[in-house]
Write a structure and sequence with these properties.
Blueprint: H1 4-17, H2 22-28, H3 53-62, H4 67-75, E1 90-96, H5 97-100, E2 118-122, E3 132-135, E4 150-154, E5 164-169, E6 174-182, E7 186-191, E8 199-202, E9 206-216
Parallel strand pairs: 1-3
Antiparallel strand pairs: 1-2, 3-4, 4-9, 5-6, 5-9, 6-7, 7-8
Helix pairs in contact: 1-4
Amino acid sequence: MFSHERVWAAIDGLAARHKMTASGLARRAGLDPTTFNKSKRTATDGRPRWPSTESIAKIVEATSTSLDEFTALMRGGPEAMSAQRPAPRAVVPLIGFAQAGTGGYFDDGGFPVGQGWDEIALPQAAGEEPVYALEVSGDSMLPLYRDGDIVIVAPGASVRRGDRVVVRTRGGEVMAKVLQRKTSKTIELVSINPDYPDRQFPISDIEWIARILWASQ
């Protein structure tokens, strides 16, 4: 008999096999992106919450996975080893762009605080610099980053002209751009997608700016 832990581990393993987060897997299957969030796996009273058979059927179909393969992931035996990523070096907060635009998620330095997000295991070392992950949504960052891609950002890293950055304004707008110019009074940002306009802001309108180190696509 499969345990609650092994069923959820199989879902995480299937997402990893296809180089996605659990929320990215849910989105590919046409489900709500929060369907497989860690917060959904336990009820408020502490009882285990199981994924529905419908949601499992949808992710199996969306990833062209056989039931035997999914069962192997639930067993966690040798058959499932090929479906797993290499041992992660670190686990960091994962936040969607929509979450990043709401209040209460960041400290003054632009690093996540409190709770309310998922986590992701980094496939490579991030160094000593504190980092977190943002999940791309929409097409504003094409062709570099697609919907569902993960960008790793370092809020404490210095930024220079030409760096790819994530910027949050004091009004709650979050965007990924290329830093064109930064002075003591203004910041100029170039859009990654030419279909979107470049932006310029007074420095006083910027809450934080974080350099994009790399992307897990």
